[in-house]
Amino acid sequence: MNGYRYSSRLKTLRHLLSELRQCSSTGKIADVPVGGYVLSQFKRFRTIDESSRSTEEMTCLMNAYVTYLSSIRNYKEIFANYFSKKSLGIRETANMVGFELPQDSTGPIVKP
Q1: What InterPro entries is this protein classified in (predicted)?
Q2: What would the DSSP string read from start to end of 35-88?
Q3: Close Cβ partners of 39 (under 8 Å, ≥ 6 residues apart)
Q4: What is the mean pLDDT of residues 80-105?
């Protein structure tokens, strides 16, 4: 069971480093100052007993950071797609949400 916990913590670390990399302007983890700190803390807690409370707290904190960073990234994407443009026409707004407006017909309107 210890191998499973270690694997879970390692996945969380990789996910956290991936989110930090995506926050970087260059896309490199070396350009993010907190990246080295995260790795050093992970190595420090890796040597502590696997069932210790501090290791579980570290894993919970890493999960919280991953959630926070991914939420910020998702918010920025949504904001850029939907709220950054000043004014859109009816057709652009309908296309944005997945609707298609009926085509304008130039012929006479026939009433039944």
Answers
A1: FMC1_homologue
A2: HHHHHHHHHHHHSS-TT-HHHHHHHHHHHHHHHHHHHHHHHHHHHHHHTSSS--
A3: 17
A4: 76
Residue type, 9: R
CA distances from 34 to 18, 41, 73 (A): 13, 11, 17
Q: Is residue 21 part of a domain?
A: yes
pLDDT of residue 28: 79
Show the domain range for 87. Answer: 2-97
Distance of CA 38 to the CA centre of its chain: 18
Number of domains forming the structure of the chain: 1
Per-residue DSSP letter, 28: -
Indicate the SS3 state at residue 4. Answer: helix
pTM, full prediction: 0.63
Torsion of CA 49, 54, 59, 60, to 10 degrees: 150
- Does residue 104 lie in a domain region? no
Residue 55 has pLDDT above 70, yes or no: yes
